Amino acid sequence: MKSFAQATAALKRKLGPRVDVSEQGRWAASFDSSKISFLPDAVITPSKESEIGVVLALANKHRVPVTPRGRGTTLMGSAAPVQGGWVIDMLKLNKITIDADAGMAHVGAGATNANVARAAEAHGWFYPPDPSSREYCTIGGNIACNAGGMHGGKYGVTRDFVIALRGFLPTGEFVEWGTATKKFSAGYNLRDLWIGSEGMLGVVTGAVLKLVPQPAARWTLLTAFSDETAALGSARKLFRQRVQPAICEFLDRESVLCAERATGKTVFPGQEGRPVILLELAGTRGELEEIKPIVLAWARENSVAHKEATNRDEVEELWAVRRKCSGAMFELGDAKLNEDIVVPMKNYEEFARFIMQLKKKSKLPIPTFGHLADGNLHVNIMYHRVNRVETRAAEKAVQTLMETVVKLGGAISGEHGIGLAKTPFLRIQHSAAQVKAMVAVKKALDPLGILNPGKMFDVVRVWKYEKLKLHLPWDHK
Description:
Layout (H helix, E strand, L loop, with lengths): L4 H11 L3 E2 L2 H6 L13 E3 L5 H13 L3 E4 L16 E4 L6 E4 L4 E5 L4 H10 L2 E2 L12 H7 L6 H4 L6 E7 L5 E4 L12 H5 L8 E8 L1 E2 L3 E8 L3 H13 L6 E5 L1 H11 L12 E8 L1 H18 L2 E4 L3 H17 L6 E8 L5 H15 L5 E4 L4 E8 L4 H20 L18 H4 L2 H14 L32
Parallel strand pairs: 2-4, 3-4
Antiparallel strand pairs: 1-2, 5-6, 6-10, 7-11, 8-9, 8-10, 12-14, 12-15, 13-14, 13-17, 16-18, 17-18
Helix pairs in contact: 1-3, 8-12, 9-11, 12-13
C-alpha cells in the first residue's frame, strides 16, 4: 500500500495533536464491523468543523485517500480505509441542540443516534430512525448509508428526517444543503444526493433533523405461524386492512430456535421454533383502542398462537427473542453473510418459498428476520470459514439471493449501503447507464477521487479476506 509520509508530516504541522500516527490509533481505525483491516497512515480527530476543510485541502494537494468515520458500526466495509491514507474520526463533533418549538434537532455528525433520540424525548419529541446499533452509531454514519431500523415502515428512514446538511466537498470547500426551514426549493437538491452516498461525495459535519411528536400510547403483540409462507402472507392481510404498525418484525424458524436456545425460554410453549411476527402499535390512546380489536381478530384468524403485553416487563420479555436472534445464529456457523435486502410486499410469499429452496440447494442454514412493514429483510447465510465446500456454497447462495431479489422487483440493500461487501452485486441492481451516471457524479464532485475511494464501484469479494477475531461493543451477544 502506498505511503503518504510527506503529506502526513505536513498535516501534523498544521493540526498537531489532532493527528495520530501511533500504531494503536491507526489499527483501531483500520476496520469497521466488516472486521477487515486496512492500516491508514494517520487518524485525524477534529474538534472543529473547519479542521476538516484543512485536511481535505491538503489531501487534494498530495492526492491522499481520505475515509470519513463515525463509530465504525457499518457491516459493509464502508468505513474501512481500503487504500490507506487518512481517516477522519468524527466523534468529537457531537453537539445536540433541540429546537422544541420547531420540532427540529441541530446535531453534529458524531452524535449518536440514541443520544439524539433521548434529547428529543426530553422535549416531548420523537426521532424514529433506530438502527440496531443506535447506542453507538452516529448520525453522520446514518446519513452516509441512509439508515433505517424497526420504525421505518410507519415513519420512514433517515432520508425522511434530514431537513438540511452542512459539510465539506472533497476539495475542502464548505457547503450547506438546505436550511432549518420546513420548505426549501432553491436550486438542485444536493442534500439528498449526499444522503446514502457513503461518504464518497462529501463529509457531513452536521445536520438539521425533523422530529415528530412522541406517541401517547404503545401496544405490543407477538404472534406465531405454522410456517414462513403463512407468516408473510398473513402480514399482507393485515396491511390490506390499512393497519400501519409502528414496528412489524418477522423471525423465521431458524431465527426463533437460535433465540430460544440463547435465552433458554420457549416463545410459545408447545410451539417451539415457530416463525413469529412481533407487532407494536403506536399513536393516541383513541387510535390504539380502535385498531387493537382489528389486530387481535387478525391474530386469532391467521396465527397458531399469540400473546399481548400488558406491562413493560412483558414487553421486554417479548422483545428478548428479537434482540437475541442475530448473535445466537453463530451456533450455526462461525461466519455470516448478512444481507439486508428489500422485497416488494406483493412478492412476500414467493420470497419465503425461494429462501426455503435456497436452504435446500446450498445445504446451509439461512436464518432470516427483519422489518415486514417496509420489506427490509436480513438474510443471514451461515457457514464455517474453514470448510471450503460450505464457503463456496455461501458464495453461490449470496449471488443467487441478489439475482432473485432484483428479479422480484426488490433492492440489494435497504439500509446498510454498498461499501465493499456489496460491490459484486451493484451491477445486478443498476444498468450500465445508471452506474455511469453515478460515476460521473463522483468525478464531478471529487475529481481526484480522494474521498472514500475503492468503495461501491470497484468489485471486492470480502469473503476472501481473513476477518479479525474480535468482539465489538455493538455486536449482538
